[in-house]
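User: Second chain of the day. Same drill as before.
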Amino acid sequence: MAKTIMITGAGSGLGKGTALGLAKEGHKVIAAVEIHPQITGLKEAAEKAGVDLEIFKMDITNPDDRERMKRYDYDVFVANAAVNEGGPIWEVPMSALRQLFEVNVFSTLETARIAAEHFVEKRQGKIVFMSSMAGTMASAYKGLYASSKHAVEAIAKSLRQEMEEFNVQVATINPGPFDTGFNDRAVEEKWEWFDSEKHHTSVENLKESEQGLDQQYDPQMMIDKMVEVIPKDHHKFRTAYPEDTAENMRKEEQDNWDIEI
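Assistant: Same format as last time:
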């Protein structure tokens, strides 16, 4: 059965591919993008794909933009918009950490609250939080993003239980490392502020932490999985993909009980 699906952060990456993929499957897609130039790019991609999208500009950190959500009716809301940044969590400028949380946690929750109220009025609906493998995993120099996704996991778990009485579903999708440029930008961002003469973390350790970017997965794999899961009436609360990512998440959670300091 075709659904009406709103997705944020649809101007690039997995969000863009998923918006197009859902439309190809016959769903009505309401695609929110951060900035006006992304509207043009997404329209061109939709025309090339032979699909129709309803596109609007919504920087989720902008209260006026968030109000635009209330114009629409939809069956599923996908909170996909996010930013990423790497670096030592004890040395990164607090302004960067606060901004990351503003997008990934506070503004994401504000959009989810609008969706929740909409669905409560309808007595049905589904909220999908785009989390990450980082939602349960963390490692050196990746703590900024991971901590924000840990928060999203807690929000999603709590909201799932709170929404049960209103017949509203809540779920997470937890991608592994996919080659959309999202992770690469996070790696590059820290070199804008890091100063080896001022900061203590070794440059060698930072550069070593960047290894693995050449081993990211083809984004189409994740897009296909999101297109499959998002419209479903029933599925697992957490969808971690691919399976080796899911297994690594399970292993790290178990290992945390055995670590000694």
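The CA atoms of residues 238 and 249 lie 11 Å apart.

User: Great, on to the next one.
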